[in-house]
What we know:
The protein is mainly alpha-helical and 90 residues long. It has helices at residues 8-23, 45-59, 64-89.
Amino acid sequence: MTQTHWGDGKRTLATVWVWTYITGGERLYAPAVLPDPQGRRPGGYHVHYVHTRWRFIDAGIPGHYAALRQRLDPYAHSLGEQIDAADIEH
């Protein structure tokens, strides 16, 4: 979409979305948001960005977050299948 900012915040949001999709986990525990499970939840711009925009990508509200989700879901599904297939083979 034109005039859409695709910076590091959105890349972090995409990373957390794919991790959550594949693992079925909570976004609060995604490595991009909580790199050390024993540590305190870090703050900062990217973590704040993910938490404040999560509702837009999660709800699929029309706009660039829905467009991002439409591209990420098939990718995450395919990646999850590859991971599952590799796990069976070993």
